[in-house]
Amino acid sequence: MVTISSLKLFREEDSLMVALFGEPSALPDGWLENLPAAAVFAASPEGLPLEQALSLAEAAARVPLLPRFQPSPTPPAAMVSPATPPRLLSTVLRTAHLLAAQLPAEALQPLADQCLAAGRSDLALPLLDALAADPAARLAAARCRCELGQTRAARADLQALVTSPDLADRPDLLAEALGQLAWLDLEAGDSNAARHQLDQLQTLPPDPASLADRDRLARVLATLDWLQQAPPEAVGSSRDLRPEAEVVLALDTVQQTPCGTVLHLEGWRLDPAAAIADLVLLQGDTARRLPLDALRPRQRPDLAEVLQQAGLPPDAPAGFQLALALGVEEAQSPATDGLAALFVLLHNGQQFCLRQSVQTIPLDAQALGLTLADPTP
């Protein structure tokens, strides 16, 4: 499998071209191939620096990339290997109580990286805690706590980090910590605290890696303010942007348990160009980012005519379900007005909201089963 890590824009005669770098490559500089800019970028890359190596994340923060070149989410620490042997994870699981106390930092870090690469935040966390002298490891540990639902400890760690002199010369880490803290504030319904984190973010150098998160936070905060003033009928439950962005999105159902532990959304979408960049669920004063990879496709026979018009077969899995099980520290009860809005941000910068009434469902085996459903259509 070829992994693309960076690119370089250059001009060849009158055309803009892109050199792609990554692995495996037979050349020392990691060069893979040259492609026309239109085959890599989803918009004009004019304005990007020429002959300068940019990571995929840096390039995507300035100009949207086509789906196959979208960068993967940056892991909490530098991963040593994308493949983690199962036996290694089993060893860490059995010996974690000894490793943190007996192994040196240079041995702990690769182990933590491989646990993170395997999606095992629970195994990485004690190793990262043992590396607390390194602010990057402390930030990675806070992210692990967020993923494990330990939001109180994560908040305490992040608040200590953003006021620590250890990040005075690491604006990249400070920006990441402020952004993570702002999202925790929004999940808790404290938009004023989130605005404070955003204000601090805006004072930092314009690092391309954090510009997208600053923009997303500002958009969500502005949308929360707007929704408080807008009547419910001002926001529909579907949006058709095929002439502009090749996407149609409809929100049919929002279900939630009274305690907020289970959150379940259903709807449908036509998105052949993978135009959707972010989904954020807004309820009252709260905002929660929804993982795009948690959208489970479903067949929708009732959409046969719509699918036919779009040139798709009637059994195309245009429907989606998204179900999350939230921990006691991260769950929020449904908003008092009984409404939820799905904030949608596209790669081309367009945004819109879809609104639905929240259906309250009991916390039982059926509700929990929604989070365990088979992801296949």
Number of extended strands: 13
* Poorly predicted spans: 74-82
Number of helices: 12
For the terminal residues, how far apart are their CA atoms?
26 Å
> Can you summarize the main beta sheet?
9 strands, mixed
Approximate shape = globular
What is the structural class? alpha+beta
Rg computed from alpha carbons, rounded to a whole number of angstroms: 22 Å
What's the helical proportion of residues?
25-40%
Per DSSP, what share of the residues sits in E-state strands of 2 or more residues? 15-25%
Element-level helix/strand string: EEEEHHHHHHHHHEHEEEEEHEEEH
Mean pLDDT over all positions = 87
Concise synopsis of the structure shown:
The protein is α+β, with helices and mostly antiparallel strands.
Folded structure, characterized:
There is one protein chain. With 377 residues, the protein is of the alpha+beta class. Helix content is 37%, strand content 24%. It has twelve helices and 13 strands. Helix 3 (105-117) packs antiparallel against helix 4 (121-129). The protein is globular, with a radius of gyration of 22 Å.
Task: Please describe the structure with a list of short key phrases separated by commas or semicolons.
377 residues; alpha+beta; nine-stranded mixed β-sheet; four-stranded antiparallel β-sheet; 37% helix
